[in-house]
Amino acid sequence: MEILSDDQCFVCGPANPQGLHANFVVDKEGRRAHCAIRIPSRFQGWQGLVHGGILATLLDEAGIYACRATAVHFVTAELTVKYKLPVPVETELLVSAEVVEQKRKIYFVQARVEAAGKLLAESSSRIFEVTPKA
Hints:
Blueprint: E1 25-27, E2 32-38, H1 52-67, E3 74-83, E4 92-103, E5 106-115, E6 118-129
């Protein structure tokens, strides 16, 4: 599979004017990643609340970044999200993820969205490492 980046990723792409512009920090030793972000009101579902799909997207991206502690190219094979509390737009959120297990090229990841110390959403995912064509 040929993998090309054009900086248009909806979550982290700096060239995508409609994107979230999340800036994840990767902890290579801990195989973790995190970012602080505020979700603008244009991404709301119900009045004043972040759309659940946006939260799932952030959890997914956090998982990919946690995996990037060991390699570069990944795709999500499975993502299960549990929504715990409504998430107001324009709230400072902490999105984090950690690789909890690895079997060959499959990474098992746990991710969380928190605000003010409260767990708002969490996910578990299976993420597959992709070897690009030479």
